Amino acid sequence: MSDSLLNGPLDTPRRVLIIKPSAIGDIVHALPVLPRLRKRWPSAKISWLVAPAGAALIERHPMLDEVIPFERGRYGGWYNPAAMWDLFKFLYQLRRRKFDLVIDLQGLFRSAWISAACGAPRRVGFSNARELAPWFYTDLVDCSWDRDHAVDRYLKVASALGCEEGPAEFCFAVDDADRRYIAELIEPGMKYAVLMPGTNWPTKRWPIARFAALAERLKARLGLETIVAGGSADAEIARQIPAKFNLVGKTNLRQIVALLERACLVVANDTGPMHMAAALGVPLVAPYGPTDPTRTGPYRRLDSVIRLNLPCSPCYSRTCSHQSCLEWLEIEPVLELAEAQIRASQRSA
Fold it and tell me: In Å, how far from its chain's centre is CA 187?
């Protein structure tokens, strides 16, 4: 096993920092890097810099030694002396940790600048990262943003570091306490589908009226009770779905993993929890509209994607006057794909 970094062989690091602070789905995509690093350097202390919203997904992770919250909104800008002082203190604390290796999986100016501010002698990032980020790296890894799925891009970095290759391993930090919490909420033996109607982009949202109608059809056609889940921001739309249980805002990210583990079916928009369901291997239906599933879709689960082949899709727009890509997606094709996903899961089992 040899290193293939541009700057040559890498000494065994004592302290490693992963920088991937962004959305929940991005954190899920980066998870397979962690077990490879742990296997490569079992005695290294591995830290992960993450935004507070995604921290719960990796807190108490058995392969992580430290989760470092990065409160981006707290460091407002050069015009705010208090914010700049807080940023200086944050960077000072990072530098005191004396990281030997920083792995920037975000690939933006801010994350690359932080990697350099850490003072680590080796800083690894993508050769074609955006916003001049490669200027701050000591070692560059080639990838394709157009052809490679996000998971494959991150695993290329692990391979460049000399990690063993193989199937992507999604190791979630869910534990028995999280599973007990879900077990106490749900009737024993209940077969259920989880509906997740929320999104961070309005244009990614399959109409809530379709989710509501789908809940009734899942009960009649597949015998599945419905649980609606998501963050507290989804509370208003979730109330429109006639679900057996409404757990919106009542679960943290690890508890959502525990909920999805037991599901007979998950129907979710292009969101972080959808990627969690895909990684868990549960039957899944993922309506896609403005984004490209080949790049950021459910990893190795494109059979679970349903989308309309329209000339304007994918557009990657957060605003749209018509949203035809999802407004025109009817319930029956979603039900048919749900049945196919459940049958495939049963055959596999």
Answer: 29
CA gap 183, 259 in Å, rounded: 9
- The mean per-residue pLDDT over the stretch 165-169 comes to 92
The owner of tokens 């005191």 is 96
Using alpha carbons, list the distances in angstroms from residue 219 to 189, 222, 236, 243, 333.
15, 6, 23, 10, 16
Phi-psi region of 280 (alpha: psi -120 to 50; beta: other; left: phi over 0): alpha
Model pTM above 0.85: yes
Report the chain's terminal Cα–Cα distance, integer Å.
35
**Angle separating helix axes 272-280 and 253-261, nearest 10 degrees:** 40
pLDDT in tens, 46-95: 999 999 888 989 999 999 999 999 987 666 655 667 778 888 899 999 99
User: pLDDT for 81-139, tens place per residue?
Assistant: 777 888 889 999 999 999 999 999 999 999 999 999 999 999 999 999 988 999 999 99
Residue 48, SS3? Answer: strand
Q: Give the burial class of 2: count Cβ atoms within 10 A of its Cβ; 0-12 exposed, 13-18 middle, 19 or more buried.
A: exposed
For CA atoms 275, 265, 308, 243, give the dihedral sign. negative
Q: Which domains, ranges and CATH numbers included, belong to the chain?
A: 15-160 (3.40.50.2000), 176-348 (3.40.50.2000)
| Cα–Cα distance, 58 to 68 (Å, whole number) | 10
Residue at 92: amino acid letter: Y
Burial status of residue 319 (CB atoms within 10 A of its CB: 0-12, 13-18, 19 or more)? exposed
Q: Directed axis angle between helix 176-185 and helix 253-261, to 10°?
A: 70
Q: How far is Cα 257 from Cα 205, in angstroms, rounded to an integer? A: 21
User: What is d(CA 95, CA 317) in angstroms, rounded to the nearest whole number?
Assistant: 38
